[in-house]
């Protein structure tokens, strides 16, 4: 009989992992939370943080920090995955987006949660096998993977969910490749020099 050990927050520490995915933005910021049990995925929550109603960039940054902290306190994620800003032509927009991402990272770091950043193409590739997939294609694949029916109006929510799923797949493939090399070396000792 297998007995799982429980961590201090009551989660099954050997099999369950909660990942918070974030798609930083200065007007709308997406978030998605999944629980993973080995290779199984379970949708916990996803949505958006509306920021356009706040005047002043500083107030938006404060709201990002507060909402990310609130998500952390409500769901106790083990890891945070963020989508890296893509490089655009508008330098001011890039600076604001970078600040939004930095504040979200600071919120996670203030709770000592590890952070991983993924390029948009990497996220799309991981979820749909196509690095150039549309937001709608990503959302459709997530609906299948996580078994939910209605796609949100704002696809920032599914983009954030995709970042969390990408993180899970990347962690899984890293473990798989390590095991594969170990198995190869064990099975082929004469081929190693």
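Sequence proposed for the structure above (193 residues):
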């Amino acid at each position: 009989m297998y007995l799982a050990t429980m961590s201090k927050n009551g989660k099954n520490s050997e099999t369950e992992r909660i990942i918070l995915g974030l798609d930083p933005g200065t007007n709308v910021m997406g978030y998605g939370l999944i629980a993973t049990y080995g290779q199984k995925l379970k949708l916990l929550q996803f949505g958006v943080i509306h920021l356009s109603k706040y005047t002043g960039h500083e107030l938006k940054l404060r709201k990002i920090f507060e909402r990310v902290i609130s998500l952390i306190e409500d769901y106790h994620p083990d890891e945070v995955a963020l989508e890296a800003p893509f490089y655009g032509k508008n330098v001011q927009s890039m600076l604001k987006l970078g600040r939004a991402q930095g504040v979200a990272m600071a919120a996670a770091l203030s709770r000592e949660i590890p952070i991983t950043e993924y390029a948009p193409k990497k996220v799309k590739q991981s979820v749909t096998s196509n690095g150039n997939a549309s937001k709608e294609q990503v959302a459709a694949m997530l609906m299948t993977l996580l078994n939910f029916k209605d796609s949100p109006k704002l696809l920032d929510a599914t983009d954030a969910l995709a970042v969390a799923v990408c993180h899970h797949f990347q962690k899984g493939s890293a473990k798989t490749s390590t095991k594969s090399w170990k198995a190869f070396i064990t099975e082929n000792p004469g081929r190693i020099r």
